[in-house]
Amino acid sequence: MLRYISAVFLLFSLPLHAQQMAEDSLYVRTFLEAMMERTKGNDEAAFDSLLHCVSIDSTRAEVHFFLAPYYYKRGERGKALKSYVRAAELDSTCVDYVEALSSAYYDALQYDKAIAAAEQLRKLDSQREDVLNVLI
To answer: What does pLDDT average to over the chain?
Structure first.
């Protein structure tokens, strides 16, 4: 009986696993396409591909991190800040994400949050003495 239940469970879980693998593959292909377009200087194509990545999987920090500069270029500072916040929320151990967030808060004149992010950055990388400049 236990084998039967296990087999039924396996049969029903396979399509879900296959669907997740397909979504992961699509995300990776689309993200790589965005990075290639970015490298070529095709900002619009890169931006569109990154937006498509978010529609595939919005839980990936890297896509939010790379979207933010495009929002800045478009003059959408609020969206840029939200993208940096989301990237740092999704991966709070990535020095690049936290550093960008601190700078974005500073740019938005949100000094308390900029200092908090700088302090977090200092905890992540104790060798970064340049971070102390934000704290002063």
So the answer is: 84
